[in-house]
């Protein structure tokens, strides 16, 4: 292998880890589309990272995710204990006050995966979500917000993956102007209602770590119970404050000075 080819392989491996870090996990086909590589090349990249211990593979889903060996390279590997220790108490307390369920979702390939939900403490007749459930990124409010706050290169890669997806639920990704407008609005205003305007709806805001989207905080509500105008006025400011407090408690690198 000549020097140029070695550099190309290194770049592919680094881009693959960046993309996996942004999305949580990836299948071979998703990496192939995202980096515009033949499937066989994408598989070789992932198998090399697997052999070196930088990624592992879920035996059931066949998806690849980063291992803690990535800590040796950078701060890209994240410890998600903040969800249980910082976010959960705050979300459950707030749900008891406002009545509407709150959730935290993170990216997982083409989907947003639920990491926390306060459904158990609500008495509303809503569809009960469960931790681990997934929804199409191109449709959901959480997916729109995630895409809006990715850096430009990662967003372009994900939009390419979503446009080429075989999942019919990702159809809005092929309506380029509609999806782009929703993403632009989310980035400008800091929230999104998504593109799925059914009986149950959600509004989402980003949770950031040093300017990078770490997760998404969302509130689920009934369309007949609240208008978008009411949600924007009464709940979006509170969600943004909660996200800022989670960021401060979970990701602030320097502790507050002692007085």
Report a brief summary of the structure.
This protein has 259 residues and is α+β, with helices and mostly antiparallel strands. Helices cover 45% and strands 17% of the residues. The strands form two sheets. Strands 5-4-3-7-6 form a five-stranded antiparallel sheet, sandwiched between helices. It has a two-stranded antiparallel ribbon with strand order 1-2.
What does the model show?
With 259 residues, this protein is an alpha+beta fold. It has 9 helices and 7 strands, in the order H-H-H-E-E-H-E-E-E-H-H-H-E-E-H-H. It has helices at residues 3-23, 28-34, 39-51, 81-98, 141-148, 152-163, 176-189, 228-234, 236-251; strands at 55-57, 64-66, 102-108, 111-117, 134-136, 200-209, 212-222. The strands form 2 sheets. A 5-stranded antiparallel β-sheet has the order 5-4-3-7-6, with helices on both faces. It has a two-stranded antiparallel ribbon with strand order 1-2. Helix 4 packs antiparallel against helix 9 and helix 5 (141-148) crosses helix 7. It is globular.
List unreliable stretches of 5+ residues.
255-259
Give the helix proportion (percent range).
40-55%
> Main sheet: which strands, in order across?
5-4-3-7-6
Largest sheet, in brief, is: 5 strands, antiparallel
- Portion in beta strands: 15-25%
Radius of gyration: 19 Å
**Average pLDDT number:** 86
Secondary-structure element pattern, one letter each? HHHEEHEEEHHHEEHH
Structural class: alpha+beta
What's the total number of strands? 7
| Total of helices | 9
The coarse overall form would be globular
Cα(first) to Cα(last) distance is: 60 Å
